[in-house]
Design goal:
- It contains 19 helices and eleven strands.
- The two termini are 36 Å apart.
- The chain is an alpha/beta fold.
- The relative contact order is 0.16.
- It has three domains: 59 residues, no CATH class; 326 residues, Aldolase class I (TIM Barrel), CATH 3.20.20; 42 residues, no CATH class.
- Helix 9 packs across helix 10.
- It has an eight-stranded parallel barrel, surrounded by six helices. The chain has a two-stranded antiparallel sheet with strand order 1-2.
- The longest helix has 22 residues.
């Protein structure tokens, strides 16, 4: 399949001269863009890379621009915007193109623009979505729904494995650096660095406990600044407490930020620093499932969230504190993130749960059978089926990606409608309606034309992500 064939897939709605791509019929392109998405997801070789390149190039031509949220968060940090919303960061694991279309539909209805699409290092592995594919799914969704403007793509939990770091520090850091370059090339201009796995609570002082964390976060931040495109200031986030561990506190935040600022200034003097910091307030990624399949109640320390958000803004000029692991919480909790001034909240697991709940029963049974065969060794003697499948079902997303794309339209429409309803509710509770005016005021998108060589190249080898956070 050559470029002319690819253009036929979208009813020749593109004008392609060399590597220059122009859209000659946006409506027609939107109606057929899913064919390039499927080729990007399930194809291989040169045609897969070309499909991704065409989607990104067409998006740019239509004013759909991968962008950094850095300036919006710094404006919030200096009080130039109200703290009346919390930016949702959506981790879309299953059928991310379909889910993203639902998000863009909601955003257009409520005049929202402060929302993020993200994927973690762990999710990249088990969902089989490299950054270029994930970006293609999101940008194509914007094309299909007629959404224009900045699109915030984020590398979530670009995390250092404590286990691998202990064995070979240089190789593990290089793995994160290589993923960072790959993400930047794909248009991810928001990167959450996570070396909180290396906090050492055996050290006598909080500063010493956080030392390796802030040193490596500063080192990886400097690496981002060295490799980001010209004129782009990537939004960088750090993390002071591993999600699922004990709750963060003011002393840790101040120790981390003081050490980070000092180390970053040494490594990259005069260069912009971070825009936010992630903390632990009592949640866990995916929630804790009980024997009957229900989720355990979570006691979130909202006062700590607010206190650390205020300190992050007023003392360090950041947008605020970030809340992880929240999508399985009761919906009535979500407006509390706004009330307690969180700058950002990360949402993932419940959208995957909805997929499993609504997927055809024969596909779900096939995926569960695959889990029995391939992950059965992780089943503990006291685990119920509900607990085992809930804990492990994320690992079946990547292996069954092609079957998901082959679902009948009625099944896809049912999922899309359910997701749209959920996204509409969450975005209303998080106060993002009307945020387009703040994005328009403070965020100035910069077009970075894609390099074809970054799309037509050998596939990246898979890595073990079983010990990384989502």
């Amino acid at each position: 399949m050559d470029l002319l064939d690819l253009n036929k897939l979208v009813d020749e709605s593109l004008d392609i001269i060399g590597t220059k791509v122009k859209v000659n019929d946006a409506k027609k392109l939107g109606e057929h863009i899913d064919k390039l998405v499927e080729l990007s997801a399930n194809g291989s070789g040169q045609e897969q890379g070309w499909a991704r390149f065409l989607v990104r190039s067409a998006a740019l031509d239509l004013g759909i621009i991968p962008t950094s949220i850095h300036d919006l968060y710094l404006a919030r940090g200096r009080g130039a915007t109200p703290v009346s919303w919390t930016t949702p960061a959506f981790n879309l694991r299953a059928l991310s193109h379909i889910a993203a279309r639902a998000i863009f539909r909601v955003a257009k209805k409520i005049d929202a623009a402060a929302f993020i699409f993200e994927i973690a290092r762990s999710e990249i592995g088990y969902t089989a979505q490299r950054p270029a594919e994930y970006a293609t799914n999101i940008l194509a969704a914007a094309i299909a729904e007629g959404y224009k403007g900045p699109v915030f793509l984020q590398g979530d939990h670009f995390q250092v494995s404590a286990k691998r770091y202990a064995i070979d520090p240089e190789s593990e850091l290089n793995a994160v650096k290589e993923l960072t370059v790959e993400a930047l090339e794909a248009g991810f201009y928001n990167i959450d660095i996570d070396t909180s796995t290396l906090v050492d609570l055996s050290k006598p002082s909080v500063s010493e406990q956080q030392a390796l964390n802030y040193q490596l976060t500063a080192q990886l931040s400097a690496f981002v600044r060295e490799n980001e495109p010209k004129d782009i200031v990537t939004s960088i986030g750090g993390e002071i407490g591993e999600v699922g561990g004990y709750n963060s506190n003011e002393e840790e935040l101040r120790a981390f930020m003081a050490g980070y600022i000092s180390e970053f200034e040494r490594l990259a003097p005069g260069v912009p620093g971070p825009s936010k910091v992630s903390i632990q307030t009592g949640t866990s990624h995916g929630g804790i499932v009980l024997a009957d399949g229900s989720l355990a109640d979570v006691n979130i320390d909202l006062e700590t969230l607010k206190k650390l958000s205020v300190i992050a803004r007023e003392d360090f000029g950041l947008g605020g504190a970030v809340q992880h692991g929240a999508s399985t919480l009761p919906e009535e909790m979500f407006n509390q993130f706004v009330a307690h001034e969180a700058v950002e909240v990360h949402l993932a697991t419940n959208f995957m749960t909805m997929f499993y709940d609504l997927a055809p029963s024969d596909l779900r049974a096939e995926m569960y059978a695959w889990l029995d065969e391939n992950h059965g060794d992780s089943r503990k003697p006291d685990m119920t089926d509900e607990q085992f499948y809930y804990k492990n079902r994320k690992y079946a997303i990547g292996p069954f990606k092609s079957q998901m794309y082959a679902l009948p339209k009625d099944d896809l429409d049912k999922l899309s409608s359910a997701w749209e309803k959920q996204f509409s509710s969450l975005m209303a509770l998080l106060g993002v309606a009307g945020t387009k005016k703040y994005v328009d005021e403070f965020v100035k998108p910069i077009i970075v034309n894609p390099n074809l060589e970054n799309y037509v190249k050998d596939a990246v080898a898979e890595e073990d992500v079983s010990d990384l956070a989502d």
